[in-house]
């Protein structure tokens, strides 16, 4: 982000909310990554992130209020935010990295509901970068069981 100074990135992690906010522009109530557990850059770029799902999330007020379920689109968005952190870490936090937008979602699958009290563990892998675009693959799990998966394309601006 252009408003922030270069962030000192530790070798492994974990990263807390304030460090995540220095890497991506999202803020409450739309910051959907609570913690970065760890990442690797070699042999492939992979990040593991956590979203703690609470009944206090604003979307639960209107999304099946009698049977609260985290919207699938927000699970995808959480994986895209984790991809943003991975992109930042993988570029060594270079300033002027620009803003990236979610440009495409492919092969999205939802295999179990995510409800209040769940801890969503997201694993996002960078597949490649090409002409200002990042290609990622993400999986979100709860208690070791896959809840969602997809392929993401993010475009730089």
List keywords for this structure.
six-stranded antiparallel sheet; 157 residues; 2 helices; alpha+beta; 17% helix; Thiol Ester Dehydrase, Chain A
Folded structure, characterized:
Strands 1-2-4-5-6-3 form a six-stranded antiparallel beta sheet, with helices on one face. A hairpin with a 5-residue loop joins β1 (35-40) and β2 (46-52). The protein contains two helices and six strands. It has 157 residues and is an alpha+beta fold. Helices cover 17% and strands 37% of the residues. The protein has one domain: Hotdog Thioesterase (Thiol Ester Dehydrase, Chain A, Roll), CATH 3.10.129.
Can you describe this structure in just a few lines?
With 157 residues, this protein is an alpha+beta fold. It contains 2 helices and 6 strands.
Task: From the 3D structure, determine the CATH topology.
Answer: Thiol Ester Dehydrase, Chain A
Please identify, by name, the CATH architecture: Roll
Q: Per the principal axes of the C-alpha atoms, what is the gross shape?
A: globular
What is the CATH superfamily label?
Answer: Hotdog Thioesterase
Mean pLDDT: 90
Structural class of the secondary elements?
A: alpha+beta
Total helical elements: 2
Unreliable spans are none
CATH class: Alpha Beta
Spell out the helices and strands N to C.
HEEHEEEE
**Residue share in β-strands:** 35-45%
What's the SSE blueprint?
Blueprint: H1 17-23, E1 35-40, E2 46-52, H2 72-90, E3 100-110, E4 119-130, E5 133-142, E6 145-156
Antiparallel strand pairs: 1-2, 2-4, 3-6, 4-5, 5-6
